[in-house]
Amino acid sequence: MSKTAQSVWDNCLKFIKDNIQPQAYKTWFEPIVAVKLTDKALSIQVPSKFFYEWLEEHYVKILKVALTKELGEHAKLVYIIKMENTYGNKQPFTEKIPSSNRTAVKSQDVDIPLNNKSPELRNPFVIPGIRNVKVESQLNPNYSFDNFLEGDSNRLARSAGLAVASKPGGTSFNPLLIFGGVGLGKTHLAHAIGVDIKDKYPEKTVLYISAEKFTQQYIDAVKKNNRNDFIHFYQIIDVLIIDDVQFLSGKTGTQDVFFHIFNHLHQNGKQVVLTSDKAPVDMQDIEQRLLSRFKWGLSAELQTPDFETRVSILKNKLYRDGVEMPEEIVEYVAKNIKSNVRELEGAIISLIAQSSFNKKEITLDLARIIVEKFVKNTKREVSIDYIQKVVSDYFQMDIDTLQSKTRKRHIVQARQLAMFFAKKFTKASLASIGSQIGKRDHATVLHACKTVDNLSSTDKQFRKYVEDITKKLSV
Ligand code: ADP
Ligand code: MG
Asked: Is the pTM higher than 0.70?
């Protein structure tokens, strides 16, 4: 039977799989595609230059052994790097790396160029020119576990955070993904984990960073041709905390680099903590392979706190600020501001401020006025997800149906209504509305808005739909 690239590679894989960690195998060997076999050379395609460097640095020996077993001692391995997708260019193209860079798995001992890269570690937090390898944690010491009050709404996330903090990288909560709506304490908890780890393990390198800043640093690194330094910097972190990962959606380049950093850290037993405003299943425009990584550890939700928890959060805040306030006022505020902790704190701060500026006593009446203002001003912005849910509930269909490609009239109408309300009630662009409601383009959304306008002025039944849904969205 004659050998093919596939059969040779399959045999190599069998051998490699038996000899390395399953996680490493999954990360570094499963993505490889065997492309060509000529005489004694096997060509394999790898997803990026980074990937190739990594194989060279860590797995060249085992590759050599495996391939020699298959093709004899003159075996050669050729890498083909599938270039990363660039924005606007969906068609990936392949490129052969210059022959001088090809690895010859020929002589008995291949000289592995270890430690020849990145002689100086560039730290993206540091202004160029100033050498500083020490990593500042960027943690806010005011956010601790002590002042993160426990309640039913956050018990799982809080205890998982504590577990991670006492054994970073040593629990199955890796990554720990904390998700929930705005103002529910994601950032606070993320810092608390980092602060606690720094406290218990001062020698560990902990880094807190928002996904937004991470993206910016990455863009800068690419501009300055420092992509590898960027990666290396992040690979030396022991505990990496990335806040608001939903920000990475649609940013394929940053997702790609994060994927590699994540794999490296995870594989080396380092801890990753992530926060997001939604659960992995609901994340849009995040690559599947990254989403599947997010689900490896634990996803813990922060929910809106119940009344008792709201009261204790308020009391704790007042206590820390050294302010006294009658019980009934605290309860009044906690009863009326329910959506999130940030608003709760905001209301109590304005209450304190009002009373001290105007030298007024804090009374229930003053509390009423302020809470009322607060609830009005911070009327929550509805999300596109929520709009789709309300519209599909109203028409008794599920969201998948609403988003489907079907041309059935009542489904098309429901979809158009969802687009119309998304335009009316959110600040999202037409393109973004389209991509979230069944992956349509901006022209489709524009057309939907016009159709709904027209129909509401000509069709009585349709006008009723619009009114009903408006009411549902306004409560
Ligand atoms: P998110 O990142 O989810 O939008 P934050 O972490 O910024 O929310 O929290 C908003 C505010 O609410 C912060 O001041 C935080 O300290 C406070 N907070 C949230 N949850 C709690 C809690 N369980 N106990 C005490 N304060 C909390
Ligand atoms: Mg936050």
From this structure: no
